[in-house]
């Protein structure tokens, strides 16, 4: 690594709805880390992705759900319009919180070639396999799988990945590229047929493009530890053969009324909600 220069990647928003203050607290954490490093005399190069594709979990595929497509249908807009609208809202919220803008905000949908290249590399190295038009990462090809989350072998947390996929060689294997189901509009050509990327490959591909095979800091929410970041480590190190990230830093869940803030729990607050109640958005910076 280069002395005095810090490379940093933050898992950014999935732009199909507003970011609530629990989401934004994680981005505040990354901003504080960046500011402290800068104040200490370092040059920080910060990447924060925008997820508008690649977020699909297998169980959502099986249930016929796609966050971006469902949001577009519900609001009567195109997927591009949905993504641009909620990305603008996210950037507005970050501005209200005085969060420094990332140097690059790469959009997942604009980096499909990089994802396909990485999947191809994993196939060539024997770390991935094709089954039914899908490409899966072979977890058994990576001996250190589980080191970030401390989930190993048969001890993998039940219910975290609810994939019932008979095409897999091992239930722990995860999807790198998913074959497009009949009637799907959002799809891309690939060497394995039309399809779309899995949830995890996007960050590995974009981090590699902008930060190289190894970088200093990767931040995200604690809910990203497993399986997202665990799988990201496996596929990146499987592709490049060396350590992927020096330091992983995760923000804990924000509690509201004693429970994790989540849309499903009905305890979500937006920055606009705080302003409506008479709070300056910057006051949120000082209380988290």
From TrEMBL:
InterPro entries: Cys-tRNA/MSH_ligase (IPR024909), Rossmann-like_a/b/a_fold (IPR014729), tRNA-synt_1_cat_dom (IPR032678). GO terms for biological process: cysteinyl-tRNA aminoacylation. It holds the Pfam family tRNA-synt_1e. The keyword Secreted does not apply. One of its GO terms (cellular component) is cytoplasm. This is Cysteine--tRNA ligase. Residues 3-275 form the tRNA synthetases class I catalytic domain. Keywords: ATP-binding, Ligase, Nucleotide-binding. It comes from Geodia barretti. One of its GO terms (molecular function) is cysteine-tRNA ligase activity.
């Amino acid at each position: 690594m280069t002395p005095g220069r810090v490379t940093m990647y933050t898992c950014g928003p999935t732009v199909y709805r507003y970011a609530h203050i629990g989401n934004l607290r994680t981005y505040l954490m990354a901003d504080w880390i960046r500011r402290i490093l800068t104040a200490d005399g370092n040059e920080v190069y910060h990447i924060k992705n925008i997820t508008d594709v690649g977020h699909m979990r297998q169980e959502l595929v099986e249930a016929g759900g796609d966050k971006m497509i469902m949001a577009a249908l519900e609001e009567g807009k195109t997927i591009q319009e949905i993504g641009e609208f909620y990305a603008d809202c996210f950037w507005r919220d970050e501005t209200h919180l005085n969060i420094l803008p990332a140097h690059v905000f790469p959009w997942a949908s604009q980096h499909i070639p990089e994802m396909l290249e990485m999947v191809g590399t994993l196939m060539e190295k024997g770390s991935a396999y094709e089954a039914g038009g899908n490409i899966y990462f072979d977890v058994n090809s990576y001996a250190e799988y589980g080191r970030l989350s401390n989930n190993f072998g048969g001890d993998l947390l039940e219910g975290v990945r609810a994939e019932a996929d008979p095409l897999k060689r091992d239930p722990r294997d995860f999807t790198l590229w998913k074959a497009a189901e009949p009637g799907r509009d959002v799809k891309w050509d690939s060497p394995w047929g039309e399809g779309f990327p899995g949830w995890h490959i996007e960050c590995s591909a974009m981090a590699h493009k902008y930060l190289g095979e190894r970088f200093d800091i990767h931040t995200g929410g604690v809910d990203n530890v497993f399986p997202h970041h665990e799988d990201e480590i496996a596929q990146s190190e499987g592709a490049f053969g060396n350590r992927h990230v020096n330091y992983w830093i995760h923000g804990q869940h924000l509690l509201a009324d004693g429970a994790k803030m989540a849309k499903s729990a009905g305890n979500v607050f937006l920055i606009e909600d705080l302003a409506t109640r008479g709070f300056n958005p910057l006051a949120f910076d000082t209380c988290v």
